[in-house]
Amino acid sequence: MHLSEQEIIRREHLEELRKLGIDPYPAEAFAVNALAADIKAQFNDDAPEQFQTVALAGRMMVVREKGKVTFAELQDSSGRIQLYISRSDIADGENFDLYDVVLKRLLDFGDYIGVKGFVFRTRMGEITLHVKSLTLLSKSLRPLPMVKTRVIEATGETEVYDAFTDPEQRHRMRYVDLTVNPQFKAAFITRSRIISAMRRFFDDKGWLEVETPILQPIHGGAAARPFQTHHNTLDMPLYMRIANELYLKRLIAGGFDGVYEIGKMFRNEGMDRTHNPEFTAMEIYVAYKDYYWMMEMVEQCLEHIARAINDNNPLIKFDQHEINYAGPYRRLTMYDSIKEYTGADISEMDEAQLRDLCKQLHIEIDNSMGRGKLIDEIFGAKVEKNLIQPTYIIDYPVEMSPLAKKHRSKAGLVERFELFVNGKEIANAYSELNDPIDQRERLEDQLTLAARGDHEAMAMDEDFLRALEYGMPPTSGLGIGIDRLTMFMTNNHTIQEVLFFPQMRPEKGE
């Protein structure tokens, strides 16, 4: 190991503590009975007895020594609070080593400590814990980044410097990021609340949360490139799921009226500001419903979530926009949306004509793309970025949606919608295809595309077709990307800011 000077010093402190009989990593539990934020919010000068026997634990951050008194800041999961530590309070009788040696010299910035005492307000108005006992709970052997602030006298503004802001370091060392940049915790807390609100909404409707396989013998349910692995005992390839759609539909065929799953999906594709190879999605399937019903349900669900995380307000700010999650949302067909933003009516165009249009619009394509993929490329390049407020794009060409039911009144289309917010898709839904003969023909078309080199084409799943042959009721299904929804509901522009541990390249060696 190549240790810095500070790391060497901290290891020396570790050994000195042990020589003094102090375990730097004690096994005993420390009973915490309060949080810093709660104390600061609830302390009342007229009733100080409320916080006379307080036990807090967290990292020791800022330390300021004043003779026989030390002021420090303790940071727990809720925030920071000032500590007042007097030599006479924590010293053990005539032995002042605990203060003079341990506190002043052997404890370091970032060490975990437990403190007990009472709360008071200083003459400067700072709510403070007067420490009567102090216990080392865990020694930190690496120094945390020292984020500093100073007040600019001319303007009164606070300036931050030496901040831990490099995105790669922040995302790679999230444990450091969350410690020195606790403000970023808010997005992750909101993410948890989004998932909880969504789960409550579904549970209150009586739909069942289930679990389906992550390792699948056939990848299906979406147009995506899978990760592949090998099972030694069975001596067969397996795929990390790209979607859970086909398994959830099996459960509808098995007699459940409504099932949903919130879980990880894996797609062996590119990485950018809105894509991570491992992501969280929710998929739900409800029997005897169609995509018109699903559009209304999505509006109700997203409004419920927005109000749950935003003080009962469905308006959530993203950049300069205020996104209104209360329905109804605008509805626009796929063909009409392309016509609106390009002027081209593609409804009667064949593959060759679409290729010519892509060239005119300077959209890059390749020979593996069929009619559906070409339309998708045009839509992605010319339409998506304009859809800021929640907008349903509905009635997709059949070539784009091999798992969706044919439109009840429009030939060549399927009953499908995608919901777009801030120029990105966050939800995808169908009136599900339950005709096994039609489904087989669609999957055979996908095999033709795969033979042309389309790595995202779907595979043939004979067991799923068998389930449809036994019979599946009319059903509507929906998928929502949790990560992207969280981005937009927390005003974040990259998926890495709402994933605790985004996928990253290996660290460079020494």
TrEMBL record:
Which SUPFAM superfamilies does the annotation name?
Class II aaRS and biotin synthetases, Nucleic acid-binding proteins
Write down the InterPro entries for this protein, in alphabetical order.
Answer: Aa-tRNA-synt_II, aa-tRNA-synth_II, aa-tRNA-synth_II/BPL/LPL, Lys-tRNA-ligase_II, Lys-tRNA-ligase_II_N, Lys-tRNA-synth_II_C, NA-bd_OB-fold, NA-bd_OB_tRNA
Cofactor field = Mg(2+)
Please give the HAMAP family that the UniProt record associates with this protein: Lys_tRNA_synth_class2
Question: Which PROSITE patterns does UniProt cross-reference here?
Answer: AA_TRNA_LIGASE_II
- Name used for this protein in its record: Lysine--tRNA ligase
GO molecular function term, any single one: lysine-tRNA ligase activity
Q: What is its EC number?
A: 6.1.1.6
Query: What quaternary structure, including any partners, is listed in this protein's UniProt entry?
Result: Homodimer.
Which residues does the UniProt record annotate as the domain Aminoacyl-transfer RNA synthetases class-II family profile? 191-506
Q: Which reaction does it catalyse?
A: tRNA(Lys) + L-lysine + ATP = L-lysyl-tRNA(Lys) + AMP + diphosphate
Where is it chiefly localized?
Answer: cytoplasm
The cofactor note from the UniProt entry for this protein is:
Binds 3 Mg(2+) ions per subunit.
Name the domain of life this protein comes from: Bacteria
Name the species this protein comes from.
Haliscomenobacter hydrossis (strain ATCC 27775 / DSM 1100 / LMG 10767 / O)
Where along this sequence does the record place binding of Mg(2+) 2? E425
> A single GO BP annotation from the record?
lysyl-tRNA aminoacylation
- Binding of Mg(2+) 1, residues: E418, E425
Q: Which NCBIfam families match?
A: lysS_bact, PRK00484.1
| Entry similarity comment | Belongs to the class-II aminoacyl-tRNA synthetase family.
| CDD domains assigned | LysRS_core (cd00775), LysRS_N (cd04322)
One cellular component term (GO) for this entry is:
cytosol
Q: Does the keyword Ligase apply?
A: yes
Alphabetical UniProt keywords: Aminoacyl-tRNA synthetase, ATP-binding, Cytoplasm, Ligase, Magnesium, Metal-binding, Nucleotide-binding, Protein biosynthesis
